[in-house]
Amino acid sequence: MTPAAARELPRWATAGLLPVLNLTAAFVVSGLVVLVIGEDPLKVVRLLVWGAFGFEEAIGYTLYYATSFIFTGLAVAVAFHCGLFNIGGEGQAYIGGLGVALVCLNLDGLPFWLLAPLAIAGGALFGAAWAYVPAYLQAYRGSHVVITTIMFNFIASATMVYLLVNVMIQPGQMQPESRAFSADARMPFMHQALAGIGIDLAASPLNLSFVWALICCLLFWLFIWHTRAGYALRAVGANPTAAIYAGISPARQTMIAMLISGALAGCLGLNELMGVQHRLLLEFTGGYGFVGIAVALMGRGHPLGIVLAAILFGALYQGGAELSFELPRITRDMVVVIQGLIILFAGALEFMFLPLLTRWLIRV
Amino acid sequence: MKEPTAAPAIELRGIDKRFGNVHANRSIDLRVAHGTVHGIVGENGAGKSTLMSILYGFYQADDGEILINGRPTVVRNSAAAIAAGIGMVHQHFMLVETFSVLENVVLGAEGGALLAPGKARARTELAHLAREYALEVDIDATVGDLPVGQQQRVEILKALYRGAEILVLDEPTGALTPPEADHLFRILRLLRDQGKTIILITHKLREIMAVTDVVSVMRQGAMVAHRRTAETSMEELAELMVGRKVLLRVEKTPARPGREVLRVEHLRVADGYGVERVKDVSLSVHAGEIVGIAGVSGNGQSELLEAIAGIRPLADGRVVLNGQPVATRRRGSDPRKLRHLGLAHVPEDRHRMGLILPFEACESAILGYQDDPRFNIGPFLDYRTIVADTAVKMGAFDVRPSDPHLRTASFSGGNQQKIVLAREIEHDPDVLLVGQPTRGVDIGAIEAIHRRLIAMRDAGKAVLLVSVELDEIHMLADRILVMSNGSIVGEVAGDAVDEGQLGLMMAGIAPAASAAGAGTMP
Amino acid sequence: MEDVTLVVLILDSTVRLSAPLVLAALAGLFSERSGIIDIGLEGKMLGAAFAAAAAAAQTGSPWAGLAAGIAVSVALALLHGFACITHRGNQVVSGVALNILATGLTAVLGISWYARGGRTPPLGADARFLPITLPGAEAVRDAPVLGALYSELLSGHSFPVYVACLAVPLAAWTLYRTRFGLRLRAVGENPLSVDTAGISVPGLRYRAVICAGILCGVAGTYLSIAQSAGFVREMTAGKGYIALAALIFGKWRPLPATGACLLFGLLDAVAIRLQGTPLPGIGEVPVQFIQALPYVLTVILLAGFIGRAIPPRAIGIPYVKER
Questions:
Q1: CB-based contact, B442 to chain A, within 8 Å
Q2: CA distance C207 to chain A (A)
Q3: Domain count of the fold of chain A
Q4: ipTM of the complex
Q5: B141: Cβ contacts below 8 Å, ≥ 6 apart
Q6: Which of B57, B164, B171, C20 lies deepest, with the highest CB count within 10 Å?
């Protein structure tokens, strides 16, 4: 869906300048919203930046949020590379969390080096399983993956409420939560892990999931751009007819892309449950699946871009929390506004500035 | 009968239109007299449809003038064309399939905010039109359920209901059966006799001869000739249509055919709509020869090629490669397996199929060979080898710029085609399928590509070449099979071609005893 | 008698719960039948709900609330149109953006203006749409069965509910009996057919998304100033998506879509009623199961197991005229 004009411009303009313009537009409009509320946008930016990066603990928080966004951002991006739009990251992450929790609750006698891979496998497997049906329906029955993944988000939500209220609730408790994971089934915090090798960090929820997220980025990069399988997946996304010519089955690639997408989303539970909450609880996904859409669009499907975008959103989430202490009239919901605007400008209005840019470049 | 007027119903003066780099219409002049059936003939891509879209206000001409009944008219949009009395029957029917015939007819001419009165009016009017022009159709039927011939009548009714005096039909028989086409021609004659003016766009010469009074020939965006139908012949029109490109002759020694490498037996292929495009085609290609398939485009060559390459399923028949059956009706083949067995394929449309434009050149240069062990280390693509290999191919085929990392879309058409050819030829296949190898390629590159194909042959490979360029077929092919309407209608030796006869064959008129059967079946 | 009352009560709450679904589903109908995917029903409703509550709180008039609700919803619809029609952007991405934007903006503005954790100030009776008692409802209340049906089921709903009731035949009539409806359906199936008939494709699609905006505006207004006495954060709670499911379940046709809305509303009403009560022969049905049922049914339909839901052919494809 790249317009002809985009192909005639140099790559640095379409892949570099255009996204910057879009992002700027999103932030300018966000600034206008802040003005409407009656606050000074520059002051807000200052507080945000300080809240996100101003002190060691803040950086830990920022990266903790970023960890979740990396998982969901990669999930959306891998589907994008195959020409698919997976809106179901939220549901896949939710069910993936169930997989993580089941491992943590039932296998907590195992040593950590064995438990951690099993928890990863549990999250990935459950997340992928939740993506399986929409993927199958898209690949072999032609039902649109966007609609089915939306439906599966709600089904996931209902399923988890049922399980937590009726099955997994800790006996004798009112809160629909599982029992707490035992100490050996928790992801070590970064400050604990690094203390072991003599590095002193302020305590924050940042945990070893961050390392796994970065490994996922690396694996993603290797897979998409350096393996045969990734080549096939991208070929289907870029030109399904040419893929068929090359003997690549679009239906099969659809399945593969969606399963990987679900597995990546399913890893969210590692950070949120095994890393921080230490129990299975309701709504732990907190809309992070949707943040993944913004992150993937902003990061333009590249892991490096996704890490940067995830850190930006992590900073917005963490800075936004600090901000609402200072300016009670601005809550973290401002971040949701920014998120919506980024999806709007970097996604739906991706090429709005293209004619402008073209004219400007021709003149220069 | 209408009052005959001196001014032509339509006059086009110097119509010019470009789409980006494509010069679709080059300063076209055309006069269409009242009460005639005027044919416009030309190959696919000659610019006929673009010209008519301009007349209908669907595109705006970059330059030139349109006169309707002698009055200069600006056709800004379709509404203006309809108001000027022009009705269009499109190549791909512009009908809403889920609507009834009646709803389709009134769409855009509802005659008020509420449908009921307009529908009632249309119902009586349609009954009248149907009687007058033999356009019977069940007006309450859902259009999608109607056979194609009847859908077309709906299109004609639509135009007439809007008071069209000038009817434009764009490739109207493309999807019709012969009896349906005959019925259409009866309707057209009836319309003409009632004083309507008809423009018939087609690439089928038989239709021109059957129904038109006057014919104009287009080639590569230009109007090259006007003839009275009674005073011309199919041979002349075929030659005018295909024309000749000035090509440099490539030296070629006589072929020394070896064993049979590719055999196609009783192949039938249907398109997505279930229409049979290839009808019982048999042919064989031997090592060390180039077999050319000539024909006006759209006569089943593309489908034949894609079916042999494993991209389209066979409706019947089988394909035998190196003595081994690779595809039958029950057991389809897949392109990947065929490549392993030594079949390479240069597809007709490099943008749609042969390349992935957003990919880097080196990635496009392994398309289809991504599984080749040479390019892989375990599950990983060996980019160092791939880039080096691409650089070698680019050097050998003189691809410019020779940068394996440049995006495929950034190369010119000729260089893109060289990338495809390099990929398929350098893999040393036993059989090379080639479709339109020089379409959209500059003259310089054409010669290089032709040399490559002959070198392939001389290296003992079997080459099956599909081209709509007669000169290209002449120059390269050792044997020429002529395809028309899905069948092979004749075979001639490459060096003993009687052009008039070839034209007749391409027009679908089976020659006398000279061409026996279809293809060679030893 | 008690059974009758129970049935009437359940049906009555079905009507209340279905009304916003019906309005939103009809909104989706207009948009999607014109070829524009409308994931943003949820966001438009949410925006309208907030605007309606805020305007009603400010002016004390539910009519001002309705006007504000419709205005905001139409503005969001135009934004969607600007992205999808004018700039040919991805319709799904645009819809998602709309929903997220609405969630964020309503919360940010609500907290900043009212400092009540995202709620708008509670509305007094005259700032709300109150139940309307139809003539004679009191008089026939005691008549057996029919009396209860009239006084409970038909009478006693607020203005937007009656709008929803009227909107169904009106939408069906517009779609099937008017020139606008014919062209709207045509542009969603084959925009070329409309273009070659000399009608503007963008013009038609813009009008369609505006219709969707108006209907979502009424739906959102109903939620905040008729069903409740003010706006609560994320008060649409997925109703936009349920409406979307109902639209698909009704195969993009007004009456079946309305039927699906009523079915989903009934499921909801029954779930509320039955909470914790075991059903004879089945035992206790988990309420979550009933809540998920609309989505499950829609997926099963989409999979092609109960009939086939064939979307408008041109849906989701930006119209490009030049080749």
A1: no
A2: 20
A3: 1
A4: 0.91
A5: B100, B101
A6: C20
Is residue C91 in some structural domain?
A: yes
Yes or no: say if A126 and A185 are a contact pair by the CB < 8 Å rule.
no
Q: In what order do the strands lie in the sheet with B10-19?
A: B22-32, B10-19, B63-68, B71-72
What pTM value is reported for the model? 0.86
Q: Work out how many CB contacts closer than 8 A connect A with C.
A: 154
Under an 8 A CB cutoff, do A226 and B383 touch? yes
pLDDT at B246: 52
Q: What pLDDT shows up at residue A52?
A: 93
Closest-CA residue of A relative to C92 is A146
Q: Does C322 reside within a domain?
A: no
pLDDT digits (tens, 9 = 90+) for B47-90: 888 899 899 888 889 999 999 999 999 988 888 999 999 998 87
Q: What percent of chain A has pLDDT over 90?
A: 71
Domain holding A158, by residue range, is: 70-301
pLDDT confidence band for B429 (50 / 70 / 90): very high
Q: Which of C181, C196, C323 sits opposite B88 (nearest CB)?
A: C196
- Counting as contact any 3 or more CB pairs under 8 A, the partners of A are B, C
Q: What share of chain A is helix, strand, coil (3-state, %, to 5)?
A: 75, 0, 25
B161 at the C interface (CB within 8 A)? no
Nearest to C303 by CA among A48, A132, B92: A132
Tens-digit pLDDT profile for residues C8-64: 888 999 999 999 999 999 999 999 999 999 999 999 999 999 999 999 999 999 999
Asked if residue C316 belongs to a domain, the reply is no
Q: Is the model's pLDDT at B271 over the cut of 90?
A: no
CB-based contact (8 Å) between C105 and chain A?
A: yes
Distance CA B9, CA B34 (A): 5
The answer on pLDDT for C252 being more than 70 is yes
Q: Which residues of A touch C111 (CB under 8 A)?
A: 329, 331, 333
* Domain limits for position C91: 2-305
Chain B residue numbers touching C181 (CB-CB < 8 A):
115
Domains and CATH numbers, chain B: 10-242 (3.40.50.300), 257-342+430-522 (3.40.50.300), 354-428 (no CATH)
CA distance, residue B145 to nearest chain C CA (Å): 15
CATH at C88: 1.10.3470
Written as one letter, the residue type at C43 is G
How many Cα atoms sit within 13 Å of A104 on the Cβ side?
32
| Domain count along chain C | 1
What does the block give as tokens for B379?
A: 């599950």
Domain membership of residue C312 (yes or no) is no
Chain A contacts of B367, Cβ < 8 Å? 235, 242, 245-246
